[in-house]
Design brief:
The chain is an alpha+beta fold. It is about 40% helix and about 15% strand. It has a single domain, classed as Class II aldolase/adducin N-terminal domain (L-fuculose-1-phosphate Aldolase). The chain binds manganese (II) ion.
């Protein structure tokens, strides 16, 4: 894939995540550079729904912008740089504050795969406690390399992690995979909260989770094409009449 095509997909990922209720005015999605794995692409500081190709910036793995040209950067870009540094297998990352996941980060009730779409959650999603790395007086934001590195340690080899009192992070091998994970993690949280009111839950076991995750990874084009159509038809509806 060319860098231009990757940037196109990254712009689409921003819009899809907004359309699907994962990000709002806040949250971000990045992709590792295609030819230089020590670089990644991330929008300038702005609402994801409004991102266009010219808003995409390039960063090194210390989260320094390569060619800032006066553009403001996301305070929490260290989430991306530190995970890319420790996880060579990761090529795309979503950070969001999607609401249904927040209760699981603050109660310690494990977020576990309730249906086959979320096998990537594995046994249970790890929870990042910022007080362990940053003490009791942070503003909850990952605004330094040290906090980013601590978050990356919590993520470890997982595909998804919760951030106590803040949000979550999804990682993947591609934008298509990470967008899928961010969207379905939020769905899982909604369904799990609902099911907890009804009774004891039978979650996927480890084998079911791993096998379901593999099966979904072979189907990533299908939802992606649907989500792309959604953002394109919305763009047509909102463009001014000639
Ligand atoms: Mn955040």
């Amino acid at each position: 894939m060319s860098v231009e095509a990757l940037i196109d997909d990254l712009v689409s990922a921003n819009h899809i995540l907004y359309e699907q209720g994962v990000v709002d005015g806040f949250g971000h999605v990045s992709a590792r550079h295609e030819t230089n794995p020590a670089r990644f692409l991330l929008a300038r500081s702005m609402a994801p729904a409004l991102v266009a190709a010219e808003d995409i910036m390039e960063f090194d793995l210390e989260a320094n912008p390569i060619d800032p040209r006066g553009r403001r950067t996301y305070l929490e870009r260290f989430i991306h740089s530190e995970i890319y540094r420790t996880r060579p297998d990761v090529h795309a990352i979503v950070h969001s504050h999607s609401p249904s996941l927040i209760p699981f980060g603050v109660t310690g009730t494990p977020l576990r795969p309730i249906f086959h779409m979320t096998g990537f959650l594995g046994g249970a999603a790890p929870i990042f406690e910022i007080r362990e790395a940053g003490g009791p007086k942070t503003d909850m934001l990952i605004r330094t390399r040290e906090l980013g590195a601590a978050l990356a340690r919590t993520v470890g080899p997982a595909s998804f992690a919760l951030m106590r009192g803040h949000g979550s992070v999804a990682v993947g091998r591609s934008l298509k995979q990470v967008v899928f994970r961010a969207i379905y993690a939020e769905v899982n949280a909604r369904l799990q909260s609902e099911a907890m009111r009804l009774g004891d839950i039978t979650f996927l076991n480890d084998d079911e989770a791993a096998n379901a995750s593999l099966a979904n990874d072979n189907q990533l084009d299908r939802p992606w094409e649907l989500w792309i159509r959604g953002i394109r038809s919305r763009a047509r509806r909102s463009s001014p009449a000639q």
